[in-house]
Amino acid sequence: MDAHVLTVGGEILAGDILDSNFHEIAAAFRDAGIRVTAHASVADDVDAIAGTIRRSVEEVDIVFVTGGLGPTPDDLTREGTARALGVGQTLREDLVPDLEATFRSHGGRTMPVSNLNQLRLPDGAEAISNPNGSAPGFRIETPRAVVFAVPGVPREMRWMLHEAVLPWLREHRSPTAIQVRLLRTQGIGESDLAERLAPHMDAWRGVGVAFYPHLPGVDVKLSHFGKDPRRMKRELDQAESEARRILGTYVYGSGKETLAEVVLRMLGERGWRLAVAESCTGGRVAAALTAVPGSSKAFDGGVVSYSNRAKSELLGVDPELLATHGAVSEAAARAMAEGMRERSGADVALGVTGIAGPGGGTAGKPVGLVYTAVAAPGGTRCWEMRHPGVRDAVQQRATSVALNRLRLVLLGEP
Description:
The chain is α/β, with parallel strands linked by helices. The chain has three domains: 2-172, MoaB/Mog-like domain (Molybdenum Cofactor Biosythetic Enzyme, Chain A); 177-254, Alpha-Beta Plaits; 259-411, Maf protein (Alpha-Beta Complex), CATH 3.90.950. Helices cover 40% and strands 24% of the residues. The protein contains 14 helices and 17 strands.
């Protein structure tokens, strides 16, 4: 089944708030086997709401609307839906006692008469109760589609979605099952991934392939819709196995795994301890690691040695080395990693130094230049990278590259 999601609210179009609801709705529909094929945000305007719903009910099986169900004059989803479907609106007297009880439960408040507007539903609609607020949602069916309308308040929307909308769809529409695999990659671009996998994708039967670039990696999503879970799993297993073979060590994990989680697990398997020495990343590598529960089993700690003095005093980096090569250099990164390893007693240490910008760059050492060193029992290795983007992006990329370089060292990659 296909769905359109419609968000009603001028505050979203004005950029005053983020449409956080859509992320949750789309994920919940995906997990239920429902494909969201379009998402639109419209102003608090009856014609705009009606026109969008009118088009959607002719194209898809499900139309899910959020927002515009309050008691004020700019809450126009009820009227817009009724106009789109060519029906009238009726004040639902049967819902009045529940609405009055809702107000009494909040400190004995008397319900303002204007709140009755929330009960003026399109003719033929079934009300959806709202235990977290005053505005009921509703469901109304057309010859092709079913339209759901729920409040835009996230807590209210979430309850209705999971406790009313999805259960009704499972009972009355039997959505197609979906299975998904997510492969997480680092160190390879979206176009390169696509070129490597494209020659093989036609043989993967009903498995769909999508690429999701994000800072700083790319996720490869394999998805399969169908009615036979065992066949779907078998075909997904085949596609995933082949994708992993083609991409090799570019794949660092699956699902929601982070690089930090993978690195910590690999360290734990070896019984190794890690320490980090950071400059341009400002503690982001340590923050990524300590965000993982139980990271203390493999992570000792880190030093943010931002100044030359800190590099010398905290890590033992020779001031003459810094004067000769500079703080942003392969020599400095190596010395930072080796100093951190020696002083912490860790089995392996990272050293990261660079120019995050926006200032500080030169022709020879531009903004985005970062050196990453790994000091391990087998010796110290260092890599030079030039990261594009603003300061935050450079820091994020440098953090991810540092963790990935460590992962590759742990894998024994040259």
